[in-house]
Specification:
Layout: E1 6-7, H1 10-18, E2 23-29, H2 34-49, E3 54-60, H3 65-70, E4 78-83, E5 86-92, H4 97-104
Parallel strand pairs: 1-3, 2-3
Antiparallel strand pairs: 2-4, 4-5
Length: 109
């Protein structure tokens, strides 16, 4: 995890994501996943360039399978954008920063 992204767990998900205000992008990932490692620096850039507008959290699906199962995450990386606690956008696989931002930008307000 980089300086701008932080981990979230099954036990903290409801409090930290589903009851939060604003935008939170949750990256469902695993240590062994190559595309997950490729998108990590992209997420760091997005977090840095949009500080105060969006929080980026990472959920390791191996350590936290319940939340991944509940949201139907079948392949990784999957990123789900939550707005005021509700999922509003689902993104799958590696994508360059501009494509990712094209999906996030409409929700930034």
């Amino acid at each position: 995890m980089g300086a701008l992204t932080s981990a979230v767990t099954d036990t903290a998900f409801e409090t930290e994501i589903e009851k939060s205000k604003g935008l939170v992008l949750v990256d469902f990932w695993a240590e062994w996943c190559g595309p997950c490692k490729m998108i990590a620096p992209v997420l760091e850039q997005v977090a840095g360039e949009n500080a105060g507008k969006i929080a980026i959290r990472k959920l390791d699906v191996d350590d936290n399978p319940n939340t991944a199962r509940r949201y139907g995450v079948m392949s990784i990386p999957t990123m789900i954008l939550f707005k005021d606690g509700a999922p509003v956008e689902r993104l799958m696989g590696y994508m360059p920063k501009e494509r990712l931002m094209n999906k996030i930008r409409p929700h930034l307000g």
